[in-house]
Each structure stands twice: as structure tokens, then as C-alpha cells.
Specification:
mainly alpha; Serine Threonine Protein Phosphatase 5, Tetratricopeptide repeat; globular
């Protein structure tokens, strides 16, 4: 049986042919969110923010308001302003926590409700590879089999089949995972790796049924490992993200996972292999107009000494600024 094609805007956001060219106008709040995600993936930040501002109004359903705030935070964070991104991410978490049927982990940390982005965390361990190893062992980041929840099909808390996890209507679990993973990325960007790990731990169980959330969880876990020099853990989580991405419909998630694996490989000291891995990523970014990822790939390749990459990064940064973003070019040598 052939699966029905997803709606145009959902496919542009999470499908095999992402892009912002020729997108139709949104007719519903869900379509507006999909349109904003597609625009953001192409680096059309000003247009994406305009769509998200409409969704942030009080009349929007809490789940979509939360997702819109998380997406807004992602746009802010991509330009390096992690502290500023924590505000919309924190509000997104608060909205997700207000929805009564949200299935959260049953441990005491999760039961206390959504975290405050600005609240101090008592007993926060000093960042280090030992803390990473204890909090997020790679083989158990999503349980004993990271691929199990995906290949078996997404399930709700009571075991029933859930709607399409990529193109269906998002629910409170999607909003909760996006908000807390975003807050973890914000904490990481503010040099608070231990806080990032605590937030990621609260996403691990609900992400088992959400492939998009699972990939994002592995992204930020790998980035956290890189921040404390734990290259082995970073490589493991980036590799799992690549494997999960290959099983899903989203080209953007597949490409970003491949970029992260190349970055982890570079950090581990294998520059030649990292440069070779980044080459097809650069091609995909150009082919699908994934401008923010193209900029990031060019920055990585520039750091690896690839000829012409610094010029490409500068060109991407200039185009992103013209589209409403704020991205630096490589530092002059």
C-alpha cells in the first residue's frame, strides 16, 4: 500500500524535498507552523519570524503556540544568541507543561513540571566527560535499542498507535520535547553542560515515540559531548542521529546529522576524513537550499583548510543577513 503524500507545507518542512521557493500561503495554524519551519530551514529568517509571530498570539492552541516559540528560539540560537533563545524556549516549556494530557517521565525531576530557563540547578556537576558518561551513556540514550521505537511505529502513552510522527498533527509530547531540547541547547551555548544533560534526560523517555525529537536529542547530546571534549560519546550520538535520519523522510534532518558526524570526526582529530564526509553534505545543502546548514558546513570546511570554503561561508553569511539572520563569516586568517 502506497502512503499518501503529505500536504505541501508539511513536506517542505519535514519531507525529502525541503525548500522555501513557491510555498503556498498557510490556511491553518498547523500549516503556518510548517511554513515557518520550511522558511527557517532555507534561511529566510525574517519571513519565518513573521509566520511565527502570528502563531504566538494568545488565540492559538497551546501546543502550536509552544512549538512556534521553540521554533522562534531555534532561529535566535542559530545566530549564536543562546541566552536570548532561552526566553522563548522557557515559555514554550511552560505552555507544554500546562496541557493536562502531556505524557512525561514519571521520575521526580520530570514530575516537578517544566524547568525555568533562568533557575539555578542545585548540585550541578562540573562539566566533564565523566558526567556525560554517567548521564547519557550512548547505547542507552533512548533505551536499549534507539531504533526500536521508530521501527515499531510511534505509540502513545497507553500503547495505541499515534498519528504520523512527521506529518501528522503535533501533540503535547512533541511540544515538550522541542522545548526542553531547545533549553538544553541554550544551556550548552551558555557553557552549562551539566544543566544541558539534566534537561536532555527529561526528554529521553518521551522521545522514544517521536523520531524527530529523537534525532534532535542525539544532536544536542553529541554537541554537549563535544563541548567537554568527550569525542567518543559525540561520535556515537552523531552516528545514531545519522542512522535515525536515514530512516525518516526529512532531508534536512538527514543532512544536519551528517554534518554533525563530520564535525565530531574533525574534533576527534581525523581532519582528512572529516573533510571528505563534509563534501557531500555541502552538495546537499546547495541542492536543497538549506542555507543555514550550508553556512555551517562551509565554516567547518574552512576550518579544515578546504580551498574556497571560507569564501563560500562569507557569501552564505551575507545572504543570511539579507534574509533576516545574523551569521558571521570565518575569522580572517
Amino acid at each position: 500500500m502506497v502512503s499518501p503524500l503529505p500536504p505541501v507545507l508539511a513536506a517542505a518542512a519535514f519531507g525529502p524535498a525541503p525548500g522555501a521557493a513557491g510555498l503556498p500561503p498557510a490556511r491553518t495554524p498547523l500549516e503556518r507552523w510548517h511554513r515557518a519551519v520550511a522558511l527557517g530551514g532555507a534561511g529566510r529568517f525574517a519571513a519565518a519570524r513573521a509566520e511565527l509571530a502570528v502563531l504566538a498570539r494568545p488565540g492559538t492552541a497551546p501546543v502550536l503556540r509552544s512549538l512556534a516559540l521553540s521554533t522562534t528560539a531555534s532561529l535566535v540560537r542559530q545566530s549564536g544568541r543562546h541566552a536570548a533563545a532561552a526566553d522563548p524556549d522557557g515559555r514554550a516549556a511552560a505552555l507544554a507543561g500546562l496541557v493536562p494530557d502531556l505524557a512525561r517521565p514519571t521520575n521526580s525531576a520530570a514530575a516537578s513540571g517544566p524547568p525555568s530557563a533562568a533557575a539555578p540547578v542545585s548540585g550541578e556537576a562540573a562539566p566533564g566527560s565523566a558526567a556525560l558518561g554517567e548521564a547519557t551513556p550512548a547505547a542507552a540514550a533512548l533505551g536499549a535499542s534507539p531504533l526500536g521505537a521508530w521501527t515499531a511505529g510511534a505509540r502513545t502513552a497507553d500503547g495505541a498507535a499515534s498519528p504520523d510522527p512527521w506529518f501528522g498533527t503535533p501533540d503535547p509530547i512533541d511540544a515538550w520535547c522541542d522545548a526542553l531540547t531547545g533549553l538544553a541547547a541554550d544551556a550548552l551555548g551558555s557553557a552549562r553542560a551539566a544543566l544541558a544533560l539534566r534537561l536532555l534526560a527529561r526528554v529521553r523517555e518521551p522521545a522514544r515515540t517521536r523520531p524527530r525529537a529523537a534525532i534532535r536529542l542525539h544532536w544536542v547530546t553529541a554537541e554537549t559531548a563535544l563541548s567537554v571534549g568527550d569525542h567518543g560519546t559525540a561520535l556515537e550520538h552523531a552516528a545514531v542521529a545519522v542512522e535515525l535520519g536515514a530512516q525518516g523522510p526529512s532531508t534536512r534532518h538527514r543532512v544536519k546529522s551528517a554534518l554533525l558526524l563530520a564535525a565530531a570526526t574533525a574534533a576527534s582529530g581525523d581532519s582528512a576524513r572529516a573533510a571528505a564526509m563534509a563534501e557531500p553534505v555541502a552538495g546537499d545543502c546547495a541542492a536543497y537550499d538549506l542555507l543555514p546548514l550550508r553556512w555551517a558546513t562551509a565554516m567547518l570546511r574552512s576550518g579544515l583548510g578546504v580551498a574556497g570554503a571560507a569564501d563560500e561561508a562569507a557569501e552564505c553569511a551575507a545572504l543570511l543577513r539579507a534574509r533576516g539572520g545574523d551569521f558571521p563569516g570565518p575569522a580572517p586568517s
